[in-house]
């Protein structure tokens, strides 16, 4: 890939224009180095104070206590004074670090939106656990966490490697960064995890001979020692003397650069959105002309790309090439963060405890000096009292003599009192109290009370008091672990979530997975598969029962999990089951097999399997966790009994509904018949009317025909027509009236009969409707049998 030019920058303005990508990287390195110079000095001082022997005394005080064998100015030589160091900070720091070691740290993924299922999220969980277990992620995290707890800042990384030398498949791994001060991040980032940073560098100093073997084709490998020495004057941080030796070393840096393309989002008239670059210009212009106004727009961040390069102080060795993910894979771990008028700084537990530790060292040194160097109490003896007994008194300070003889008179012959000691005790008690106060200050500055370190107060020996103080200690130091979980591991999860579908993208690849119970499994990704003999087997699309783990389907949310290890949870489960069996002995026969299954002594699993066979059928399961045949039979019997009871209830309910339906059906049938009769009557009336009209038309036609044929006989025909017309009218009236009367009578009879049928179910009882057996029959309808006509 060709090297793309990026805007140049200077140490004070990272966005200033420049024409060289390599020079831009060097300028960014210088920018980060200057921005974090004071922070790195504080970090180094804290690390030396706690990890380097002799670093807890200032250099000038240590030199003054070394003494002077020569003396000077007529004075005797100055003897060396104690300069003792009691590193009490390591205890609280190890307590904080070991708390994180005991925690079960992990990542949990959950579906976000409609495009991803819980099965895919579970696959991400299993793959992430396998990645962390195989690459020993806890070592990388703990190395960075320990540094952050001590001096305020640490970092670890994720990278990709080939699975082996015979494949192009890659895997994701965690790596610790040995020298975490070699990481330089964007000083203009605002987020605590640097997720909004635009660049990062990871440097490493290599001996020149190793560099020439590793990168023989580079320009720097061809430089002579004189040229490198001259280059080191111009680039002092890139060409250095390695670890105090005479040989030269050159610095190589991995360089990540984030490139984001700004795009314009347009709000369309139908309330949907689209990128302006994806809309044809003429269509967009036409829509805006029709609306008479421009469509709403806003600038968004487009595609985010991360490019990786390997460079030295002279040239780019490899790249730039696009990184597999969208995030810089360096995971910072922070301690206590503060911002003092723009000066961003991070601190750990050491910085504010240094004075208390120095005070304790000084007081203890003074205590030892006062006790060890205090002079012996002198004897006050008169002149001549020891004559003849000098050997006895010379041994008085080294031997436990039963008595010490002396003379009662001096050389002058005068009587003298017995010899006496001149006792002068140094202020050891005051020094001891000062040392104890310094030790209390040390506990206060680290938020770790003595009980958290196993130092019990005689007045606080109750279990409640001890647990309360230990809980207080955990709260006082839990901020570091919370930062690891809520800041670092959330960003780690984003990086991992972004890399997994890109690295494990080959359809049909079996990806290692690790269940929550720490059991290994294989996951086939991106194609349909079924489980056969515990192994995934690919199948054609549409196969019944097939599953598909599409790692690119939808989006996921990530959370950090801080819990206990599976072994610890097993121990707690066994303890809880034992307590339950002790409190409720009637449950012991049922819970005992499961309690044995959680124990870890040899033969516990076999004993649990034997005990499970003695369980009642409803509690038995096979080795795969499925119900046993006896348990399945009992379950089927219970299900059949429940089904029979349900059928009985449904049958009774059906009978009630059937009676109601039959009554309602009779009413409905009667209503339908009445409606049908009314329609039939109307049809008959309309039919009669139609016949009359037809008869009128025929008579009119015949009349017209006769008039045309018998024009000469007009008078006779008129008389005849009048009589005929009169007869027709009479016939018509008589026929229509008779037909209408018959239809009306028939309609009334039908209506009366239907009414009687409708009243039958309510009044007839068991005798049935329409006057059946067991009831008094209803009178016949008018016009019916026996009724008036």
What is the element layout, followed by pairings?
Layout: H1 21-35, H2 37-51, H3 59-65, H4 90-102, E1 104-112, H5 118-134, H6 137-151, E2 153-162, E3 170-176, E4 183-185, E5 199-207, H7 208-214, H8 225-234, E6 239-241, E7 248-267, E8 273-275, H9 281-291, E9 297-311, E10 316-322, E11 330-334, E12 336-340, E13 343-347, H10 354-373, E14 378-380, H11 390-394, E15 420-422, H12 428-446, H13 463-503, E16 510-514, E17 520-524, E18 528-532, E19 535-538, E20 547-548, E21 555-563, H14 566-583, H15 588-598, H16 604-613, H17 629-709, H18 714-763
Structure write-up:
This protein has 789 residues and is α+β, with helices and mostly antiparallel strands. The radius of gyration is 52 Å and the shape is elongated. It contains 18 helices and 21 strands. The protein is 46% helix and 17% strand. It has helices at 21-35, 37-51, 59-65, 90-102, 118-134, 137-151, 208-214, 225-234, 281-291, 354-373, 390-394, 428-446, 463-503, 566-583, 588-598, 604-613, 629-709, 714-763; strands at 104-112, 153-162, 170-176, 183-185, 199-207, 239-241, 248-267, 273-275, 297-311, 316-322, 330-334, 336-340, 343-347, 378-380, 420-422, 510-514, 520-524, 528-532, 535-538, 547-548, 555-563. Strands 4, 5, 6, 7, 8, 9 and 10 form a 7-stranded antiparallel beta sheet that branches. It has a 3-stranded antiparallel beta sheet with strand order 3-2-11. It has a 3-stranded antiparallel beta sheet with strand order 19-18-20, with no helix packed on it. The longest helix has 81 residues, at 629-709.
